[in-house]
Amino acid sequence: MHLLEVENLTKRFGGLSAIKDVSLHVDEGEIVGIIGPNGAGKTTLFNLLTGFLKPDSGAIKFKNENITGLEPYKIVNKGMARTFQLVKPFRHLPTIANILVPLASPRGNKKIEWLKTRERKAMEMLEDVGLSEMMLEPAENLSHGDLKRLEIARALATDPDLLLLDEPFGGLSPIETDYLTKSILRMHLDGHTLVIVEHKLHALMKLVKRVIVLHYGEKIAEGEPEEIGKNKRVIEVYLGKAM
Amino acid sequence: MHVLDIPPRLLAFLLLLLFLELPLMGLDIYTLGIFVTANVFAIFAVSWDLLVGRTGLISLGHALFFGVGAYASALLFKYFSLPLWFTIPMALLAGFSVALLVGFPCLKVKGPYLALVTMAFPIILSAVIYYFAPVTGGEQGVINLPTFFPFPNYYLRKLAEYYFTLILLAASSMVVYKIANSKTGIVFVSILDNELASKASGINVTKYKLLAFAISGLFGSLAGAVYAHLLTIANPPTLLLTISFLPVILTILGGLGTIYGPIVGAYIYYILNSYVFKNVIRIPPLWQIHIVTSFLPEINSPIYTDYLMLLVFTAVVVLLAIKWPRGTARLVVDKLKDLEEAREIEKRARKRRLNIRRSVDKLQAVFKGSKKKPEPAPKG
User: Which of A50, A88, A104 sits opposite B203 (nearest CB)?
Assistant: First the structure.
């Protein structure tokens, strides 16, 4: 049984197919990478999986349950959370409130241990991502790197079984990238299954065991990072055809 | 722990004490009457602030809840002659359910479109009231409602009404404030801030928006029902556009999204509107006689003075909105916070100065000491 199973997913925007007949699966405890050039449909795929877009055809199964076309908040409460490529914090609220909100969701609420206040839990979660000093600062005062980490902390606060990270390394400095790599590995050890969309292949390949390559909305390859690196089609897509 | 800005709790308590004391210091009936109205509309504005200031659902039809409260209580009295203490809670229930009902179509639209949709509802209700005139009393409304305190002494009656509305205001604003700063309140603000992010956080946005509507409708109808019983009448003017805009003015005057702001705004509004201007802003008699009356003989009529007052008042409101967009109540709280911060900085600076002086002294001592020492003899 797969944790996430996608069958023949298709999404059209007008005449353009953003996602064309994509099937994939994610097993429990995996880290899966999704790569592809700009416009390959990676973010659209995420939006479809998390309910922010409704697919034209195909089915999405999560924990053997059909979640196709469900509302985003319901999918989150079933245990699939995501981060956004362009961070979407609650800008005018204090940083800690960014964690308090997901902790107020039905699933997040269960994550709070007995006899512990919501605030206490939120503070701990901020400490985990190294943002406890900025706790009362409005989120708009945070740097880009901090916001990226806050975004992940917010998704983690809903206690996801499957976490979808949309370009977590985008715009990060090498030091921040290293730090994030470590925290992603820690998340993995904590039992979260991860799907990562990323442009920075170098950072990604260190993390994942399996890579799926999208190109113009189609899945063109799937396999271990080494295989993918040698795959002719993938090289063509990224670098162009040999003359 | 409160995450959002709070007014000093002590300040609120002292203010409440002050207002409980005020009548003892010899307020006249006129002022008491103004304060009673201010209290009722403060409740109304607080309910509006929870919906608009905290959740971002712009309602320009809040008179609907006011009217529903007034009419629900009045009709229950008219047809079942139920006592006031029963009809008002029923009116709250009516306000709550109407708000839920109205909330559904409102959730389909956003921003200015939502404002327009909400504006339509009081108009619809007043049309219904006119259409079913035999039941609702039509133009005349439902009259001879029971008052809260049927004392023969008019002053005592006003005094009792003042205390009653004051305590009602304190209680309901406290409840709204507690809601606004609870887990639910934080979710409300998060929806205002970034709806998409709220959804991604697993929040049922629709549910929370409806909840905001319902709570707001409940307190709005409380204000409406109480007001109807104070005036002993429920009539179509309770659904007028001016009633819908009143909480907007009061809240923006006091501070949007603060919950306590609308109360300050209501008092400022009613004191300015019916007390200060009535006595202070008068057309100078000289003008009246020589200039204005020569063109417009009717300028001396009370209606014209009212219009002039309104003109000055609106100018004041516009000025306040430009000068302090965060509201007058926030201004005070901000100033207090600034003072505190300034004191903190001053304290730190003093400490630093002291440290510097100490280290300078030390250095000087070392320097002096070294001067006293004889120069080491050159080697060699």
Answer: A104
- Count of A-B CB contacts under 8 Å: 86
Length of chain A, please?
243
- pLDDT tens digits, one per residue of B168-202: 999 999 999 999 989 999 999 999 999 999 999 99
B107 touching chain A per CB within 8 A:
no
pTM: 0.84
Per-residue pLDDT tens over the stretch A102-152? 999 999 888 888 888 888 999 999 998 888 888 888 999 999 989 999 999
Instruction: Provide the pLDDT confidence category of residue B1 given band limits of 50, 70 and 90.
Output: very low
- Spell out which residues of chain A touch residue B198, defining contact as CB-CB under 8 Å: 90, 101
C-beta atoms of A101 and B194 within 8 A? no
Return d(Cα B370, Cα B200) in angstroms, integer: 69
- The minimal CB distance from A101 to the residues B1, B4, B201 is found for B201
Average pLDDT over residues B154-179: 93
CA distance B332 to B323: 14
**Per-residue buried b or exposed e for B332-363, using 16+ beta carbons within 10 Å of the residue's own CB:** ebeeeeeeeeeeeeeeeeeeeeeeeeeeeeee
Q: How far apart are CA A105 and CA A102, in angstroms?
A: 5
Whether A110 and chain B come into contact, CB under 8 Å, resolves to no
Q: Which helix (H) or strand (E) holds B50?
A: none
Which of the residues B201, B204, B205, B208 would you substitute to probe the A interface, choosing the one with the greatest number of A C-beta atoms within 10 Å?
B201
